[in-house]
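Q: Got a minute? One more chain.
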Amino acid sequence: MTVPELSEVLATVRVVALPLRTRFRGLTEREAVVFAGPQGWTEFSPFVEYDDGEAAAWLRAAYEFGWDALPQLHRSTIPVNATVPAVDPDEVEGVLAGFGRCRTVKVKVAQAMQTLAEDVARVARVRELIGAEGRLRIDANGAWNVDEAEHAIHALAEFDIEYVEQPCATIDELGEIRARVKYMDIPIAADESVRKESDPLEVARAGAADLLVLKAQPLGGIRNAVSVSAAAGLPVVVSSALDTSLGLAMGAHLAAALPELSFDCGLGTAALLAGDVVVAPLIPVDGQIPVERPVIDEGALERFAASPERTQWWLERLTRVHARLAG
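A: Always. Here it is, folded:
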């Protein structure tokens, strides 16, 4: 992976704050740093609560996508799922409308200050709208303990769940809940237990998941994520971290670089943004996004420029994290 000179990065760097259509992860806007390398525009957007050590992987991914040649690609379009945040049931239809005709929907559950009954109502509404043939997966972001997860999975099983993503926080808990619900034939997917662990393969070695969720930025780039997939020997889903369309393009190239892709990917989240940084945002069309480098929209960079205070915060962060990589 190339580490460019900081001056080369700063020559084109822009900091943006993109409004969201619906509150997601407690956010009403998504901040990101974008800049151009020899291969094209790229993105650095670790969440603000992540420390510099964790953010370093995100910057490695940004430099790889902007400066290095890509691995061999096996497909030119990627099937994607719609994503429903933890909204009220009467808001679900409006959220899904932004994604067009996606056959798969991921529903956020186990949000703070919400009840299981609210989760059931939201998931029920999604199933009603997508019909019996639609694919429905849920994501708890590690919020349940094992007993809560077991109870919730039983309550939601009637809606024909494709898989449950990160029901519990730790690898040991994932292994226990996987054993408890194995008879129900509902797979367990690991997300945080891949991207936030020092060893992304530990969850696979522990037999604690049936499939892995891979994200290009948190895993340090496309090539490293492909290596994780090959070493794990499990089916994978490629997902995003509420990226701009530049980050989604990075994820699409990761999905295209995998020899096998058994599941629809979580790369349709441009539909959750009320603004983007490219001329043609990667919003799903017939449940697909193209594998391409979107053209930057200079007007959008101006329109969605972050405040001077936030821009300075991000540039200081970028400088610190860059020093880690350069050192």
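A: The chain has a mean pLDDT of 97.
Q: Perfect, thanks.
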